[in-house]
Write a structure and sequence with these properties.
The chain has one domain. It is built from two helices and no strands. α1 packs antiparallel against α2. It is elongated. The relative contact order is 0.13.
Length: 91
């Protein structure tokens, strides 16, 4: 196994991690921004007002995107297992 193969696997792992975390992070960001705007307008500075809607929105995002996330991860893992013989042969 040479350094270019290791770098390629690391790059694919980072891209997969970014793709898998994007739905949850974007959902949390959008809901957090909306709640912050509501808190600024109403001048309610309660911590639970921002935490509970974010937790609910992230749970909904996981339910909606969970099947896609699992299939992406299984595909990535199958690709890694398929590459093991070529990595061990050094070609």
């Amino acid at each position: 196994m040479n350094s270019s193969a290791v770098l390629d696997i690391c790059l694919q792992a980072l891209i997969a991690a970014a793709k898998l975390s994007a739905p949850v992070l974007v959902t949390s960001l959008v809901v957090g921004l909306a709640i912050s705007l509501v808190q600024s307008v109403t001048q309610l500075q309660e911590a639970t007002l921002s935490f509970v809607p974010k937790a609910v929105a992230v749970a909904i995002a996981l339910v909606v995107c969970g099947n896609w996330m699992i299939s992406e991860m299984v595909g990535f893992t199958n690709d890694l297992f398929a590459r093991i013989p070529s990595l061990l042969n050094g070609s």
